[in-house]
Amino acid sequence: MSTFSLSLQQKDNPFFTGQSSSLFSTGVARTVLGFHQQIDAYKPTPLVALDHLAKELGIGKILVKDESYRFDLNAFKVLGGSYAIARCVCQKQGITLDEFSFDSLKGQEPVTFATATDGNHGRGVAWAAQQLGQKAVVYMPKGAAKERVDNIIKLGAECIVTDLNYDDAVRLACKNADDNGWLMVQDTAWEGYTEIPAWIMQGYMTMASEACDQLEALGITQPTHTILQAGVGALAGGAMGYLANRYGADTFTGIVAEPDKADCIYQSGCHPDGAAVNVTGDLDTIMAGLACGEPNPMGWEILKSCSRHFLSVEDKVAALGMRILGNPLPGDDVVISGESGAIGIGLLYAIARHPDAARIMESLKLDEHSVVLLFNTEGDTDPVNYRDVVWEGKYAV
Ligand SMILES: Cc1ncc(COP(=O)(O)O)c(C=O)c1O
In this structure, are residues 388 and 394 in contact, taking their beta carbons and an 8 Å threshold? Predict the structure, then answer.
């Protein structure tokens, strides 16, 4: 096998304390899972063992939680939006989540939920609003893929494509929500806006808790490593928070991976005091779901205390991961992975084939005993770009 060198910037986390948060306890995760299980179409997504690839890369095990199967929505995001919207509805009706049922909503005046999204979160919010008989208005950044817009409109939501980047689209959605009396359901937090984003992060725990239960069913006590991709860091924070509570943050190596064009978590890890750092500009990475420049403060808090390493990588890493997952070694299953879903596997492969592989593997404690848990957070949510990359070889190494 040839070696090749993709850009992989690594920052070892000097702020690690191992301190987890009760927001992401195993008890809360059970409540959230109980809610998701009430949804008719609920079933756990597969955990795929890529044993042949693991052997090829000199790693013990590689397990990919495949969220392309989540509620037929092709991404994990709905887990957060659905839980947050249900909690908002409960709050409005003055009932607890235990008392909540889909039937209890019949005949009630619907609420309008607003959000901004690269696609997946908005699709999740539109789907949840439709399931719960509510309304949704969704704002998207410039350059939003047509398929992603269409998928939101199909779910009955109003969808507005702006000429702004993601973070500015969030601000616009927020202002319009204020002006119109809509309820903002955003997957990031800011001062004075934390309750709904916390519910969204808790919603994501279902993905992590299913994965851990599936590992146990395979006779694996726990992962030694996890690689979590970050946009604002809500997903990574929710999943890392859960893993830290379930196993202890010092029992595994938590790695956060981001595109180098939108690496706000990595940059925050490089800040001398560990303050959250915003990245500005067009954020024009192919990993649309990770094209966010402003860390979610709750996510950053968890990632700062529980992650071991932050990695900032070029777009080619994700493209490589898409091709590997879609064209596996004989005996491994095919996983259809979109740009933001594939960064973890692309990173593992890019490390193993790097001219400096031995040093990087050692620094991340990766070896033939490692059990690496990855999350394919989306399938081919932009099918045109999927084919450009996987068929036509765009972003080749
Ligand atoms: C497919 C996919 N993966 C990962 C993420 C990252 O989530 P977060 O912004 O919470 O870091 C997103 C966000 O939209 C996404 O769509």
Answer: yes
Residue pair 185/85 in contact by the 8 Å Cβ criterion:
yes
β-strands 135-140, 158-161 pairing: parallel
Q: Which pair of tokens denotes residue 266?
A: 């990595």
Tell me the per-residue pLDDT of 160-209, one tens digit each, with 9 for 90 and over. 999 999 999 999 999 999 999 999 999 999 999 999 999 999 999 999 99
CA-CA distances (angstroms) from residue 225 to 29, 212, 310, 311?
20, 12, 13, 14
Would the CATH topology of 8-75+196-390 be identical to that of 78-186?
yes
Mean pLDDT over 300-323 rounds to 98
- Determine whether 55 is an active site residue: no
What torsion do the CA atoms of 279, 282, 288, 294 make, to the nearest 10 degrees? 20
Overall CATH class of domain 78-186: alpha beta
Per CATH, the number for 8-75+196-390 is: 3.40.50.1100
Known active-site residue 394: no
Residues whose beta carbon lies within 6 Å of some atom of ligand 1: 75, 77, 118, 120-121, 187, 229-236, 289-290, 292, 340-341, 377-378
Give me ligand 1 centre to Cα 23, in Å: 20
Write down the domain spans for the chain: 8-75+196-390, 78-186
